[in-house]
User: Fold this.
Amino acid sequence: MKLPTPILKIRRKLYEQNIIKSVRRNTKKINNSRDLSTAQEKEIEQYWRNLIGIKVPLDWHRYFYKRTGVYSVQYIPTSLYFTDIIGRANQMNFARAYSDKNVTETLLKGVRHPQTVVKNMNGYFFDNEGNISKERAIEICSNLEDVIIKPSMLSHGDGVKKFSCTNGQTSVEGKSIEQLFDSYKTDFIIQKVVHQHERMNALNPSSVNTVRVLTYHSGMEVLVPYTVIRIGRKGWDIDNETAGGISTKINPDGTLCKYAYGAPGNDMIEKTDTGVTLEGYAIPSFDKVIETAQRLHLQLPHFNLIGWDMCIDEEGEPVLIEWNVWPELSQSANGPAFGQYTERIIKEIWGRKNSRPF
Assistant:
C-alpha cells in the first residue's frame, strides 16, 4: 500500500536530519580549525542553485574541506545523494532483487567470481548444481579452509566473516557449521577466499583489498567518475572504510595517490600497516578492471550509477566481489565524487522521476 504524501515527506525529512547529524558529529572529530569562508559558502550555494534550483546543506563541503584541505563546490552532499540522486539515476524498485549476491554469478557474465560453496536463498540451500537439503549443505561445509560467509542482501562489509571448518566445527566463536548457518538464518552465501595478486597482497595480506570503480551510464558511454582502492588494516579481514579499512584515490595511470583516509579523524595516512608507501604504488591490471566495470555496466540498463568492487587474483585477472546500486561515495579519498562529470550527470538525471521510496 502506498503511504500518503505527508507521511513520506516526514520520513524523508527525518532521514535527511539523521544524515546531517552524523556528518556534524564526524566533523567534530577532525582536529583542525579549517573552515569555509563566507565567500566560499556563497559560491557553493550559487553553484547548486544554478544547477538544480535549490539550496543544499553545506555540511559536507565543510566536512571534506576540513578533513582534506581541498575546496570544491562540486562535493556531493550525502543527504542530496541518497534522497534524490540515487533515486533519479537508478530504478530502485529493481534494486533489492538485482543486488542479491546469490544471483550475481547468474546475472553478470564475462567476469571471474569467487568460487561459491553454498548459497542460502529465502531459507533454501543450493550448491553449484542446484537445490540441496540443509543436511547436505552442512556436509559440504564440514571441512573447509579459508572461506567467507556473508549476508547476500547487505553491504558495507556487514556480517562478513572469514572462517575455516574442521569436522563440522568452525573457527567462528566455537560454533558448529549448523550453528553458524542458524545464526545467519536466511539469505547468505559461502565462497572461497580469492588468492590475490602479490602486489595487492603486499598492501595488507589479511584482507582481500579491492578496487572500487564508480561508473555512470550516459547514452552510449559508460563514464568512470572515480576509482579508489580499499585496503584493510593489519589483522583485519575486511577492507571497507566503514569497517575500519582505509581508502585512497587511484590515478588514471593506475598508481596511488599520496594519502589514504579511514574513519573520521584517521586522516592522511601515507603508508599501509605493512609499511608500503602509497604514493606512486602501481595497481596491477588496472586497465582490465576499468574495462570490465564498463562492460558489465552495459548488462544492467536499469541502473545508471553503480559501484563495483573488484580484486585482482594471482593471475592478474579482475574478480568481481560485489556491485552496489547505492554505493557510498569516497569523497575524502577521491575528492568530488563526479569530478569533471558533475554538471553532466546532475543535469541528465535531475529531470527524471525519483524512484526512491521513503
Q: What stands out?
A: DSSP finds twelve helices and twelve strands in the chain. Residues 5-92 form one domain. The chain has three domains: 5-92, 96-109+196-350, 116-192. The first helix runs from residue 5 to 28.
